[in-house]
């Protein structure tokens, strides 16, 4: 009888306590894989600056963050962009993408967990959008001149006509798509 009780009590580190269950690790890995694939989809969404492209990877990280919390969302962002260092040889672009996505995922998922329901989701997305836009502007001013022939003054000149509208559009797409898919995905994950 004691042996059967010992066998039914699973104390493996991935299932004990409030830690990460095996299922959560597997689902997080799935989110990472989907986000990685999505990060290679580049869509020009702002005609005045066709070189700036949108990728839907943040939607997946945002859904992961809303489902499991900001740490999981951040892990999905970071792991999905790490492989770009191997394939793209552009560490600066990876740094900017990670910073922008984490700046949306973390505030949104933290606030949505504290303030439940649609109000929390909207508030989290609003705060995340503002934080992301600020991070994108600052990162462009600092990082873009490091890896392009564009000067800091030229980047500052592009903020209002190009960088801000592009990033507002990108964040809006991420938030709207996430709001549409987050409910159904959460129901599936709840099962």
Q: Which descriptors would you attach to this protein?
A:
two-stranded antiparallel ribbon; Arp2/3 complex 21 kDa subunit ARPC3; 2 strands; 191 residues; mainly alpha
Give average pLDDT, whole number. 90
Classify the helix fraction into a percent range. Answer: over 70%
The order of strands across the largest sheet is 1-2
CATH domain topology? Arp2/3 complex 21 kDa subunit ARPC3
Main sheet record: 2 strands, antiparallel
Structure description:
By secondary structure, the chain is an all-alpha fold. 79% of the residues lie in helices and 2% in strands. The chain has 7 helices and 2 strands; from the N terminus they run H-H-E-E-H-H-H-H-H. The protein has helices at residues 2-8, 22-39, 57-68, 70-88, 91-114, 117-147, 152-190; strands at residues 43-44, 53-54. Strands 1-2 form a two-stranded antiparallel sheet. Helix 2 packs across helix 4 (70-88), helix 3 packs antiparallel against helix 4 and helix 5 (91-114) runs antiparallel to helix 6. The model is unreliable at 1-16 (pLDDT under 50).
Gist?
This protein has 191 residues and is mostly helical. The protein has helices at 2-8, 22-39, 57-68, 70-88, 91-114, 117-147, 152-190, and strands spanning 43-44, 53-54. It contains 7 helices and 2 strands, in the order ααββααααα.
Give me the secondary-structure topology.
Blueprint: H1 2-8, H2 22-39, E1 43-44, E2 53-54, H3 57-68, H4 70-88, H5 91-114, H6 117-147, H7 152-190
Antiparallel strand pairs: 1-2
């Amino acid at each position: 009888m004691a042996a059967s009780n010992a066998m039914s009590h699973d104390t493996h580190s991935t299932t004990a306590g409030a830690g990460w269950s095996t299922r959560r690790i597997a689902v997080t890995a799935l989110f990472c894989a989907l986000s990685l694939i999505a990060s290679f989809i580049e869509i020009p969404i702002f005609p005045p600056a066709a070189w700036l492209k949108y990728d839907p990877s943040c939607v997946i990280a945002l859904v992961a963050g809303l489902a499991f919390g900001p740490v999981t969302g951040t892990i999905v962002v970071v792991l999905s962009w790490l492989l770009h260092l191997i394939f793209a040889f552009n560490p600066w672009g990876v740094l900017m993408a990670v910073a922008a996505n984490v700046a949306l995922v973390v505030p949104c998922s933290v606030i949505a967990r504290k303030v439940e329901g649609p109000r929390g989701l909207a508030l989290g997305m609003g705060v995340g959008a503002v934080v992301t836009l600020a991070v994108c502007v600052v990162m462009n001013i600092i990082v873009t001149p490091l890896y392009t022939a564009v000067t800091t003054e030229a980047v500052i000149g592009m903020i209002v006509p190009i960088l801000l509208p592009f990033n507002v559009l990108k964040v809006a797409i991420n938030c709207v798509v996430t709001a549409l898919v987050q409910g159904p995905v959460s129901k599936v994950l709840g099962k």
